Amino acid sequence: MLKLCRVGIWALLILCILSLMGGFLGVLHPLGDSLAVFRVPFAGLAMICAFILRRDARAALLGAVATGVMLVNWLNHSPAAENPTAQQLTLYQKNMLWRNDGNESLMEAIRTSGADIVTLEEISRENMPILGDLQADYPVQQFCPFRRVGGVAVLARGVTATNRLACAEDLGLAAMEVEGPTGRFWVAALHLPWPWPHEQAEHVDRVVKRLEPLDGPVILAGDFNAVGWSNAVAQIGAAGGMARVGPYAATFDLPPLDFPIGIDHVLAPGGKGEIEIQPKLASDHHGVLAHLPWPDTPQ
To answer: Which ranges carry the Endonuclease/exonuclease/phosphatase domain (predicted)?
Structure first.
């Protein structure tokens, strides 16, 4: 019986290590981004199995690999807080939930935050009135429809829209170029489908093709349905000359076990800025409040 348990623990350890390594291969196959969602539990479970089998040098080595992955993951996605002196732009990012119980608390939170830019996802037929309700506060708006769950929108104040990216069918991307105090830049809202076996990889390719031709700095926020270390986030960031802002933070509880994952992100030039996680309010996603430097237009 003891031998059978040992074999089972070895099988679980090997499976966790293979899944852990597979999570780094999103560039080769979209399955990698799906495995990457569970990088932390895979590594944690592998470390537990390795500890149980610690008298075997091979298990100890695999445990060290899992520990190394955890450390690298933490160091790479926990940047130090910044204290910039440049004039700050405030952005409020929120997936509203298409079937929520009302948006009064969200509108109050947005107004209280003093956000200059707001990015919204899942603007369904029921949620659509929020755009009109916030029109006086945020007169510059760009909305694009997206599936039954609802469209995406960028709302802004204190800036002038100088260009708008045409909405593409079934893409979930809304973007406009605005003139701010430091020059022109693009701001976008994005909603991606879930990763493999869903069609996220195809959408990422389409989004990249839309972002690459944009001239000037880009700020993009949204519900990526992908964790911060995924290939999807990396590809989109590279396409717009952006990096993820702030440390990795949970924004959604993945059913059925409500496993907390971070899938709502803000991308900005150089990844400069800070984020604060906001309450869920009437949604199933936490909001993200970002404080960013106003982008400088290249000379």
So the answer is: 99-285
Reply yes or no on whether the pLDDT at 158 is more than 70. yes
Task: Identify the helix (H) or strand (E) that includes residue 49.
Answer: helix 39-52
Q: Under DSSP, is residue 60 helix (H, G, I), strand (E, B) or coil?
A: helix
Q: What is the DSSP string of 98-123?
A: TT-S-SHHHHHHHHHHT-SEEEEEEE
Cα dihedral sign, 295-240-265-270: negative
Residue of 53, 55, 40 whose CA lies nearest to 12: 53
> C-alpha angle with apex 261: 256 to 263, nearest 5 degrees?
115
β 173-180/183-191 pair status = antiparallel
How confident is the model over 1-56, as pLDDT tens digits?
777 888 888 889 899 999 989 988 899 898 999 999 988 888 888 889 888 888 88
Give Cβ neighbours of residue 186 (< 8 Å, ≥ 6 apart).
165, 175, 176, 177, 178, 214, 216, 217, 218, 219, 240
Contacts of 169 (CB under 8 A, 6+ apart): none
Distance CA 56, CA 73 (A): 26
